[in-house]
């Protein structure tokens, strides 16, 4: 009697479960990567309006940092001040002194 061909042998139950598990995990990983890429695309496609070409600082001030909000942007100066500008008009809204310790 000849041994059965490898194609005719039944698949062990543990191997069948492992194959199913790997397939499900692959699907979950693909869905996760697509979701992350979709969130990144959505975040950058809804970016705020662009900043003006030139930000005019008061004389003698040098910018060291920058941040922005929905309708404003702020510049931190070397003179330890935060200058908050209106995004629509570019005018200075507020000047905040940074206290040194």
Explain what this protein looks like in three dimensions.
By secondary structure, the chain is of the alpha+beta class. It has two domains: 10-45; 51-101. It contains one helix and four strands; from the N terminus they run αββββ. A four-stranded antiparallel β-sheet has the order 1-2-3-4, with no helix packed on it. A hairpin with a 3-residue loop joins strand 1 (63-68) and strand 2 (72-77). The protein is rod-shaped and about 100 Å long. It starts with 12 loop residues before the first helix and ends with a strand. The model has no long low-confidence stretch (mean pLDDT 87).
Question: Can you give me a brief rundown of this structure?
Answer:
With 101 residues, the chain is α+β, with helices and mostly antiparallel strands.
């Amino acid at each position: 009697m000849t041994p059965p061909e490898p194609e005719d042998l039944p698949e062990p139950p543990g191997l069948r479960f492992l194959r199913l598990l790997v397939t499900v995990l692959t699907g979950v990983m693909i869905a996760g990567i697509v979701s992350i890429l979709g969130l990144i695309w959505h975040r950058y496609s809804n970016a705020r309006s662009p900043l003006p070409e030139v930000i005019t600082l008061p004389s003698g001030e040098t910018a060291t940092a920058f941040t922005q909000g929905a309708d404003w942007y702020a510049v931190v100066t070397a003179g330890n001040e935060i200058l908050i500008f209106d995004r629509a008009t570019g005018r200075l809204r507020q000047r905040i002194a940074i206290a040194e310790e």
